[in-house]
Amino acid sequence: MIPTITAFEQSPDRGQGLARDMPVRWALEEVSQPYDVRLVSFSTLREGAHRDLQPFGQIPTYEEGDLVLFESGAIVFHIAERHAGLLPSDASARARAITWMFAALSTVEPVIVQREVSLYLESDKAWQEERLPIVEDRIRSRLVELGARLGDQEWLDGTFSAGDLLMVQVLRRLSGSNILNDYPNLGAYVARGEARPAFKRAFEAQLAVFTGKASDRQE
Ligand code: GTB
Questions:
Q1: Residue of 16, 59, 77 to test ligand 1 pocket, by largest number of atoms within 8 Å of CB
Q2: Across 12-18, average pLDDT
Q3: What sign does the dihedral 188-191-195-198 (CA atoms) show?
Q4: Which CATH code is given to the segment(s) 91-196?
C-alpha cells in the first residue's frame, strides 16, 4: 500500500528541507517505499478535515490504509519498524538506535527550536538581545556533549539508523547559523547524512514543491 504524507504547499524554508516532512520523506527513501504527497496550505491546516488527521493542525501526517499517524518521530519509527534498513535487527542495538531517536527529538532539538523561537518570534522584545546568547550557549553545551559521544565514528552507534536520520535532520536546523562550524566532527556527520542518496532524493522532492515542479507520487 502506498502511503500518503502531507507537506507544506509553501514551506517557509523555501526548499531548504527543514520542515518536518523532510525526515519522513528521507525515511521512506531509505527503505525504497514509494509515497504520495498531499500539499496543504496554512488555511487547510486549520480546517477540521486536517485536524482529524493531526490534532494540532500541523504537517506532516501519514496515511496508510486505515492507519493515520502524526508526529514526524512516530512516523519515522513506524517506517523503520516495518522495513529493513533503519533499525538494527539485534535487540540491544535496536533499543540503542531508538534511544538516539528520542535523544534527537527530546534532548537536542528543543534547544535548537528555542533559538528559532528567539530569532523569529521574539525579535521585537527588549530582552531578546540578552536571551539569544543564553539560548545559543545551551545549544553549544549539547553539541559539545553530542560531539564527544560521536567522536570519530561515522554514525552514533554502528551502522546508520533512524537515530542518525533524526539527529542529522535536527542538526540541519542550525544550517542558517555558523554554530556547527565550531564542531567539525558534527559538521562532517551532517555532511555524511546529506550525502546519502536517499537524503538527496528526499531533498530534491521537497525542493521541487518550492520550484513548482513537484509530482504527487515519489518513486
Ligand atoms: N512535533 C511535530 C512533529 O514532529 O511532527 C511538530 C510538527 C510541526 O512543527 N509542524 C510544523 C507546522 O505544521 C511544520 S515543521 N507548523 C504549522 C503550524 O503549526 O501552524 C516546523 C518547521 C517549519 C518551518 C521551518 N523552516 O522554515 O525552517 C522549520 C521547521
A1: 59
A2: 95
A3: positive
A4: 1.20.1050.10
